[in-house]
Each structure stands twice: as structure tokens, then as C-alpha cells.
Amino acid sequence: MLFDAGRGAVDGIYSARVRPQDVTAIFLTHLHNDHIEGLPTLWMTPWFLLGRQTKLRVWGPPGTRAMVEGMRQMYAHDLEQRSNTVLKREYLDVTVQEITAGRVYSEGGIIVTAVPVEHHDGNPAFGYRLDAGAHSVLLTGDATLSDSLLTAGKGADVVISNVAAGSENIERSGAIAPVLAKLMLPEQAARLFATTRPRLAVFSHIVKKGLPGAAGDGIILSRTRKAGYSGPLRMGMDGMKITVGDAIRIEHAQSRRTLPDLDGPGAVFARPVH
Ligand SMILES: [Zn+2]
User: Fold this and answer.
1) Residue 188: enclosing H or E segment and its boundaries?
2) Which of 93, 142, 143, 225 is the most buried (most CB within 10 A)?
């Protein structure tokens, strides 16, 4: 299962030691380009390079069907000419489900619930809550704070929130006001985390202007603390792996040079989810 498919999605999946051909259930939060532009590669490359024989299933907001149709138009050449008796064209079929609020997926003990959120020029937009057994994760997607997120995050083990902030000067100038209006300020995230009280809060989709590097991260974290959240909190990093169980384990990405080949004897495969 993949939640949003931004640029480099296939590379990220591969680096995470998950076989790209096993990632066939994709849930989109909204249709902004930075959340969908990895989809064509995920659709096409595991098919012709890695022998995927399962068609993709895509869940997304209204408009997703037209977007997928447009993607198929863009790749019409390959659709028409590249398939053969091994690389079958039917494996490029895509099942699209345009979602509304509520349960959108329930398979193998995993339940996915779509949460309507507010993202201004990205609407209609959704967050997602995953429940598996006794554990759960809330993803805000791109969104500002809303009652729907405060409600959906109740009881979640992990809450993963977007965040956006600028330096004092930049915020005062109004230069990024339209961006800040559609995303989560650190102070709003503090309210989300303090209300839902997760075992771990994580920032992802981190938008920073004039707040470079670790010092900038520190300002975002300290604004969140000052606004009243004192529980566990991490900045998300590319390749970070969070295991949610009786304990919550966080592992950082390994260097690519130390990773085994995916098809080699030392490969560690994630369990495929179909
Ligand atoms: Zn967006």
C-alpha cells in the first residue's frame, strides 16, 4: 500500500527494500502534482522491468479517474505497442475508486478510512486513517487543521502531519501567506497532537521558507512545543521506517551502497499486500 505517489516514488520504494512490483494499492490524498507525478513510473516501470502481473488499484478524490485516463493517454504509445505475450497489456489496467468520506478499504485485517480535509486549491482532499488489529496511524495529507482530523486522530498510535512555516520575516511579509493558509502551522499541529495524544507524532511534507537545515527544523519543533504539545515528536526523514507494535520502533534509512540487491540472496522483502 502506498499513500501518495510523488516524484521518485519508485526509487523510494526500492530504497526501502520493498519490491516495486508488489506495491499495487495506491491511495491518493489529492491531485496536486507533487503527490501524483510518481504514479506513471510506478504504473509502467515495474510492469516492463520487474514483471508485475497485477494491475494497480488507485483510490483518490473525485477527478482521479480523469487523471488516470490522462496518464494512459500520455503513455498511449507503450500501451499500444509495448505489450506482448509476456508483458500483457491487461496488467496495465488500473482500477480507480473515487472516494468519499468513510471506510474505503477493508482487506486482510487492514481498514483504511478516508477523512475529508481542507486544502484550499488542492480540494477535494483527504487524509487517511489506517487500522490494523489494535494499531492505527493517521495521515493528514496536505491540510490545515480541521475538526475532521481532530476526530479521526482519536486513539491513533501514530499521527503523521504535514507542516509549513517560514522565518519570522517571511511570515510577517505575507510572501507565503497562501501556502500557510492551506497547510498545517506548527501551532495547529500542536493542537492536533495535544488533542489526539498519539504514542508518536511525526512531521512529514515539511514546507520551510527561510528555515534551513537542522536549525530550521528546531524552530518548527520549538514552535510546536511552545504551542502546548509535549509528547513524542519527530521530524520525518526520507527513508525513515516506523514499526508500530507494542513498542514503536524508528529506523533511519541505510546508505544505498550497503543495501543488498533486491533479487540477491541477502534481500529482505516486505510482505506483499494485494
Ligand atoms: Zn497539496
Assistant:
1) helix 186-196
2) 143
